[in-house]
Amino acid sequence: MQQFPSGTQTPSSYTAATSAIEIERLVVGKVSKRLLWFIFLLFVFSFLDRINIGFAGLTMMKDLGLTTTQFGLATTLFYVAYIACGIPSNIVLARIGARIWIGSIMIAWGLASTATMFATDANTLYILRVLVGISEAGFLPGMLLYMTLWFPPAYRARANALFMIAMPVTAALGSAVSGYILAMDGIWDLKGWQWLFMLEGLPSAILGLVVFFYLDDKPEDAKWLSAEDKAVLARSLQAQRKPSADQAGAAAIETAGGRSLFAELTSLTVIKFAVAYFCLVNTLAMVAVWAPLIVKSFSANASNTTVGLLAAIPQVVTIIAMIWWGRHSDRKQERRWHLVLPMLAAAAGWMFTAMSGNPSIQMLGVCMASAGSYTAMSIFWTTPDQALSLKAQVIGIAVINAMGNISSALNPLVVGWLKDATQSFKAGLIYSAVLMMVGVVIVLLLPIARRQKTAAAIRA
After folding, report:
1. Start and end of every Major facilitator superfamily (MFS) profile domain (predicted)?
2. Tens of pLDDT along 339-360?
3. What's 67's domain CATH number?
4. What is the rounded distance in angstroms from the CA atom of residue 180 to the CA atom of residue 183?
5. 3-state SS of the chain: helix, strand, coil percent to 5?
6. pTM above 0.85?
7. What is the spatial distance between Cα 378 and Cα 252, in angstroms, rounded to a whole number?
8. Quick check: is 4 in a domain?
9. DSSP states of 141-186
């Protein structure tokens, strides 16, 4: 049984017979129990504030007299603001810590999202969505950076999956609940979509206050970890940041000692990661923004409540796929093919939805696209930190995330224009499938190292 290396004191809170791997697993388990449920909850409301406009659009477009292009432009402007503020936000987080910064921006975006209920036309909607984009920009890249401080890479796919299932969980619950909220139309002289923004926006502001008291900026600040736990976690994080010499692609992702920060962030490797994420996020945006309207397009006679329930089905499939695939990737300690295969499934799903006239096949296609893209994203974020030095991670993760958000900004505009031009989602679905296939080619060229299996991985 593997023990701590010679000269290292066995932590007093564990028995002498406990292996180093088992102690590491116990410590990571403590971190998971403390953090994952909470940051999952934060992400639920972050993502809800991002996608609820898709459900609001079922009635909001008519009430405000918006075309599909104008509606798509509102989401595009949200992402323009989101992209512009993502990198500065991560820099601020690194300087003042997640507790203060994440709490502050949650209060800001919760109030801004709630204020969307006061939109009266296209222009006021544009302004309000820009405010939400500015305030929400730092959350996801900030949380991805935050998790690298707490979870060793060998456990990262599972942690990412459990964090990121907030997206399909939110989409599933949002799909089901939003249909009922829209049915509140007329209560207190408010439209259904106004109730939607109010009831789904205010909880973010409340949670922002809770963040101030619950989150710790880094393991060293955590009163709920013993000194021994902190030492184990620090040793594990440091050891697993160093790829072994025989890993495929190690030379390509190793940062030269004298390399400047700018050179590292503009290297071909980082550009490849950013372009691959751009292609992947297009489908994530397609699911988040257009899924209710796509489902409505092949369920023309269904009520908004029924559309909401139908739109929840792909998200349930996605939740199961993300948990199982993330665990499988950690067990095998393999990332490349665990990223490529779900991307291929997503591309095939959009083609099924576009080319079939059978509603059942079209629903299967949406399920494949949703499960494939979200599962791929949770695997994707286990890889870029291995291509960046510690000093470059703060900006590098934000740069890659920003490139993905450019795709999020373009998708609503491009798909909205294609829908208005062709009176069908078919062209937009094919566009998403082709872009995903481009992403697959880029991923195959990425220097993604395969880690050696450890006891922790085998037991995953």
Report:
1. 35-451
2. 999 999 999 999 998 888 888 8
3. 1.20.1250.20
4. 5
5. 80, 0, 20
6. no
7. 23
8. no
9. HHHHHHHHTTS-GGGHHHHHHHHHTHHHHHHHHHHHHHHHHHTTTT
